[in-house]
Amino acid sequence: MQIVVFNSVAEENLNSVYSKWNNLKTDSLFNLGKDFLNKEQRDSALICFSICGNKATADISKEEKSICINALTSSARLYFCFYDYDKACQQLIKAIKLCDESKMDKELTGIYMEQGALMMTYAQQRPKQQNFKEAEEAYRKAFWNALKHKQYSSLITALFNLGNRFYSAQKIEEMKEELDAFNKADRKGV
Predict the structure, then answer these.
(1) Are 185 and 155 in contact (CB under 8 A)?
(2) Using one digit for the tens of pLDDT, what is the confidence trace for 30-40?
(3) 96, 111, 175, 190: which has the highest count of C-beta atoms within 10 A?
(4) What burial class does residue 121 get, using C-beta atoms within 10 Å of its C-beta: 0-12 exposed, 13-18 middle, 19+ buried?
């Protein structure tokens, strides 16, 4: 049996690191999180993204809010990797709320894609019709938001995910509206 002792020196070191990171500007903190992620130091990346996402206040610029939204989405993705689906969901809800409050709906496409993936995974592990419906709704929201903002790569991904879900449920006809919209969409430059 291995015992880990958490002493006051370790606690002081953690508090020092937290204080240092908490004092960074949103862009620096987000980039530090990405650096940790690139080095596969997910725990440190998660801390950076979480701190960054919580820096969102009413008085920061739209650019900073966009960084906070991306940080919340990134932290949700990491919580998802750590199998903490509840915390991932909470982070996505915070990101959606921030988008709504800031009237920044362009960022919603990626959030809805993450939400769809989270709900689909959750539904596959604990099959409940409600979880599948929530995944479908999230993918639909991602599709329509991507179409609105001409985010064609995301549009295709959302349509693929929606199609995959409806095909496996043997109800492909339920996505007729999305298929029609996709076929009519002007996808120049795709």
Answers:
(1) yes
(2) 999 999 999 99
(3) 111
(4) middle
Per-residue pLDDT band for 189 (boundaries 50, 70, 90) equals: very low
Q: Are 112 and 145 in contact (CB under 8 A)?
A: yes
Are 36 and 45 spatial neighbours (Cβ–Cβ below 8 Å)? Answer: yes
Long-range CB contacts (within 8 A, 24+) of 91-95: 91/50, 91/53, 92/118, 94/53, 95/53, 95/69
- What would the pLDDT profile of 77-103 be if each residue is shown by its tens digit? 999 999 998 999 999 999 999 999 999
Q: Does an H or E element contain 86, and which?
A: helix 85-102
Secondary element (H or E) of residue 132: helix 129-148
